C-alpha cells in the first residue's frame, strides 16, 4: 500500500506537484495518468525517496521509503528507461545488485526468464535498445520479489508483444496481492491493464476512481436514437435538462435522459424507433475531457 498525503513539490517558481493525496491499494493495478509534465515522475521519485517533498508525506506499507528495512525486497521500481548505461552484461548487472542485497543467484536467472532477456543476458547493457533496456529495468524491479511495484512508463519503447507482456505481467503480480502502480501518458494503454486510475494534470489530482467510473462520468449520458419521425420524438422527450442534436445522417444524439426513459416516452407517444443506443465514451475521450485544460503544452491545431 502506498499512501500519499498532501504531497507538494516546488522547483523554483514551478509547483510540479500540488497538494496531492491518494492511496495505491494492493491486489489491483493502479494506473497513474497525465499529460507530459503533469508531475507523475516527480511523484514517483518522491515515493522512492529520490526527491524530497516540499510538503506532505509518502509512505509505503506505513513507512517512508528511506526508512524501509531491505527496500529492494519491499519495493521494486522502474523509474527511468536506460538508467543503466554500462559495459556490464545484463546478467552481471543483475548479479551485482543481487549480491549486494543478499538475493540468491537463482533469482537472477528467474527474472531474466520472466522478462524474456535470456538471449541477450550476456550482452553489454550499453548496446541495448530502448525496449531491451525497459525489460532489464523491469527485471531489476522484480529482483527482490517485492510486494510493491512502481513502474514509470513501463511500455515506453516496447513493441506490441512487449506491451502485451507488461499488461499480463502487471495483472499477474496484482492478482498475487501485490501493489502495482504504473504511469503512462496514454489512456488507451491503461484501458486493458488498470483497475483503478489516478489522473494528474498540472500537478493536481483530476480523478481518482475505478476505470469504469471514469468512463461513465465522461460526456454525461448520451444516447444515439434513430427514428423515422424525429420531430415527434423530440417533442416526446422535451425538457429543460434534455439536449438533442441531429446528425447529418439523420440520427439524434440525446443528452440528459437515459435510453430506457427515451424508449418509454417513445412508446407512450407511438413513435417508432429504429435504434436506441447508450453511448459510452472511449477512455481516450474521457481522459481528454478530464485533462483538456491541464496540459502544459498544447499542440497548435492547423486551421
Ligand atoms: N528537477 C527539476 N527541476 C525543475 N523542474 C522540474 C524538475 N523535474 C521536473 N520538473 C518540472 O516539473 C513538472 C512535472 O514534471 P514530471 O517529469 O514529474 O512530469 P511527468 O508527468 O512525469 O511528465 P513526463 O511524462 O513528461 O515525464 C514539469 O513542468 C517539469 O518541467
Automatic annotation (TrEMBL):
Signal peptide: none annotated. GO terms for molecular function: ATP binding; ATP hydrolysis activity. Keywords: ATP-binding, Nucleotide-binding, Transport. Gene3D superfamilies: P-loop containing nucleotide triphosphate hydrolases (3.40.50.300). The keyword Transport applies. It comes from the Bacteria. It holds the Pfam family ABC_tran. The keyword Lipid metabolism does not apply. Residues 2-227 form the ABC transporter domain. Belongs to the ABC transporter superfamily. This is ATP-binding cassette domain-containing protein.
Amino acid at each position: 500500500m502506498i499512501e500519499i498525503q498532501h504531497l507538494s513539490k516546488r522547483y523554483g517558481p514551478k509547483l510540479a506537484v500540488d497538494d496531492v493525496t491518494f492511496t495505491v491499494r494492493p491486489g489491483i493495478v493502479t494506473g497513474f495518468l497525465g499529460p507530459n509534465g503533469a508531475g507523475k515522475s516527480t511523484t514517483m521519485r518522491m515515493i522512492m525517496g529520490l526527491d524530497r517533498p516540499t510538503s506532505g508525506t509518502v509512505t509505503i506499507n506505513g513507512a517512508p521509503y528511506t526508512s524501509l528495512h531491505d527496500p529492494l525486497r519491499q519495493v521494486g521500481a522502474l523509474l527511468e528507461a536506460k538508467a543503466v548505461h554500462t559495459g556490464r552484461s545484463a546478467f552481471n548487472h543483475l548479479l551485482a545488485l543481487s549480491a549486494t542485497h543478499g538475493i540468491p543467484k537463482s533469482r537472477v536467472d528467474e527474472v531474466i526468464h520472466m522478462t524474456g532477456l535470456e538471449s541477450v543476458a550476456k550482452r553489454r547493457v550499453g548496446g541495448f535498445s530502448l525496449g531491451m533496456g525497459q525489460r532489464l529495468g523491469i527485471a531489476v524491479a522484480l529482483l527482490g520479489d517485492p510486494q510493491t511495484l512502481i513502474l514509470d512508463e513501463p511500455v515506453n519503447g516496447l513493441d506490441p508483444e512487449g506491451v502485451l507482456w507488461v499488461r499480463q505481467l502487471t495483472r499477474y503480480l496484482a492478482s498475487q496481492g501485490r501493489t502495482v502502480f504504473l504511469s503512462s501518458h496514454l489512456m488507451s494503454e491503461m484501458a486493458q491493464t488498470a483497475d483503478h486510475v489516478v489522473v494528474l494534470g498540472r500537478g493536481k489530482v483530476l480523478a481518482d476512481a475505478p476505470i469504469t467510473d471514469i468512463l461513465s462520468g465522461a460526456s454525461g449520458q448520451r444516447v444515439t436514437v434513430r427514428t423515422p419521425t424525429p420531430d415527434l420524438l423530440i417533442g416526446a422527450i422535451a425538457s429543460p435538462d434534455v439536449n438533442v442534436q441531429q446528425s447529418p445522417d439523420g440520427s439524434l444524439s440525446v443528452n440528459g435522459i437515459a435510453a430506457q426513459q427515451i424508449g418509454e416516452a417513445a412508446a407512450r407517444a407511438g413513435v417508432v424507433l429504429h435504434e436506441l443506443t447508450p453511448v459510452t465514451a472511449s477512455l481516450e475521450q474521457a481522459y481528454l475531457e478530464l485533462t483538456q485544460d491541464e496540459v502544459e503544452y498544447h499542440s497548435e491545431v492547423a486551421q
